[in-house]
Amino acid sequence: MEQYTIEVTQGVYATAKEARNADRVPMIYYGKGVEPTNFSADYQDFKRLYKKAGKSAIITLINESKKEFHVLVHEIQYDPVSDEMIHIDLMAVDLNKPITTEVPLVFIGQAPAVKDLNGTFMSGKDRVMVECLPKDLVHEIEVDISPLVDFHSGLTIADINAPEGVRILDAEDISIATVSAPRAEEVEVVAPTEKTAEGEEGEAPAKGEEEKEEGGE
For the whole model, what pTM was predicted? Predict the structure, then answer.
């Protein structure tokens, strides 16, 4: 398991706004059996860390007293105008107890139905819910798409080879990947236009002219 750590301050800033004014992102640490605690971290440091860890890796917070807090990022609030992070919810993790979280799926390999039949790869699910001990948590789960040999082939949760120690909680019959057939090119068919005896399209002889022709005048 890759280690992700970040230094935080605890109780230094009186309010979340004060922390943000100091270019820090405020955090709340909570969970079953733990007392909710406010932290803050350097904004850029956390941004870089989250880009690597995401929500599927355990992060270790280290406060001023060098005490460690193991967490998963549960939710991030963003400013609707600037799109900057303004608050982080952190879920406490006990390294000796199983955790439940989502892990992204990464599709690897080549699907014959795409390569040979010009189909389009379709993913119906890009992450799964898993349960495991923190030491067994993986950042992502790879799924081989080479069994997709034609447009009737499909992959479900049951086809995922979960890493050792990781149990996937989603129903086994949920579809995760298929290949759709290419659309047939639509050819526009133009109906022939009716022509008059004089070769003019869409025009019929005037009524008087018809009577003249019939009367031989």
Answer: 0.74
